[in-house]
User: Which sequence fits this backbone?
């Protein structure tokens, strides 16, 4: 059984397959799931699955693969930065370069760097402690 290897000029398309087509991952479900997540970033995959009456796997596929979200501290956040976030990063970097040009090496000794994910986690943990009454007001 020799199969012919397609060349660059051949079109590569999926062949029809047996079985029922997916009815759970529709454009409508993807758009509605996005709206649901943006309304409540703490919604779970199971809640999305139950709301649309689809499997947990289909809900996971919509959230992670189609919409590109991931969970950070029980909240859905985009895997990649939006255009607005990228522009904000560029503006902040430009301000830092301007300050460096004005203040010189002394400015660099005051910069603290780190992963933004950790700052979100620390912020959320601090808020949680504040709600539990474990953080005292500083006077």
Assistant:
């Amino acid at each position: 059984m020799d199969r012919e290897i397609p060349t660059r000029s051949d079109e590569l398309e999926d062949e029809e397959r047996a079985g029922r087509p997916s009815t759970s991952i529709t454009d409508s479900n993807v758009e509605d799931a996005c709206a649901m997540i943006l309304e409540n970033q703490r919604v779970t995959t199971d809640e999305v699955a139950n709301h649309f009456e689809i499997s947990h796997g289909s809900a996971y596929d919509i959230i992670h693969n189609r919409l590109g979200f991931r969970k950070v501290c029980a909240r859905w956040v985009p895997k990649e930065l939006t255009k607005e976030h990228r522009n904000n990063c560029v503006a902040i970097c430009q301000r830092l370069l301007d300050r460096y040009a004005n203040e010189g090496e002394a400015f660099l000794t005051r910069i603290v760097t780190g992963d933004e994910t950790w700052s979100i986690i620390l912020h959320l943990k601090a808020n949680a402690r504040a709600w539990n009454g474990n953080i005292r007001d500083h006077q």
Remarks:
- The domain at 27-78 is CATH 1.10.10 (Arc Repressor Mutant, subunit A).
